[in-house]
Amino acid sequence: MSVTRHIFYTHQFNFSNTNTFYNPCNDMILLEKKSFMWLIFLSAMPLVTGFQKTSTNRSLPGFAVVELFTSEGCSSCPPADEAVKDIAGKYKLNVFVLGFHVDYWNYLGWKDPFSKPDYSERQKQYALIFSLNTIYTPQIIVNGKTEFVGSDKNKLEETVTRELKMVVGSPIQLYAKEERDNEIEVKYNTEKTQGDIINIALVQVQAENNISEGENEGKVLHHINAVRDFKIGELNGSGPVLLHFPAGLSKKDCKIIAFLQDKKTMRILSAASADIY
Known about the structure:
By secondary structure, this protein is of the alpha+beta class. It has a single domain (11-52, 61-274), classed as Glutaredoxin. Helix content is 17%, strand content 35%. The chain contains 4 helices and 14 strands. Helix 2 links the parallel strand 3 (64-70) and strand 4 (95-101). The model is unreliable at 1-7 and 17-59 (pLDDT under 50).
């Protein structure tokens, strides 16, 4: 009898000896309080969520926020990019993929242009939640509840399918408009008013990069929903929040993904996406 074994390669980075960890409360943005005019605007604003878009085929009631921690300097990561691309293509309405490119592999010969220290710190916070001694790439975290190796397509399919059957929490109303000086004003509203945090990401929908050095030298890497700007805020029920386009990008290249998250457990409660007008 033959036994098939699936081997998933990862790159691990030990941070157990460090004594400073990311606390999302340290980076809280100040969100303006609701006003009467703001409520009028929101009452007229269309509901834009991952489970209520133009399609009326919503046989699955739930959602899945898929956070991929990855790096262009990691040779184990390209299969994970393919995995999230496939799952996003299969579930177009309810699945929200976010590619967080970490910076701790930049010393290996290739500096990932999508990487930011903040994204590495976010991964460290998850490591504390899941009682992990190391952080690694590629790693996927779904709805802040389940973590696993990002190239494990079967685990990704199983986890997302399970989450899509769950009942959704408070919906998010979301609207994004391009302003001057590469700014995007994001307005949101939710029934939840306190005790949680709101995460708002500007994602580059499609990205491609020719790698000339490092472990992936000679490859052309493809990414979906690479996070280019990210804000975390204390939830007060409404926005607005300002994000910024990186150089060379415009609204046609990007969209907004927002999700509510429990401040203590980091479990994700609801999510929405919107185009930029």
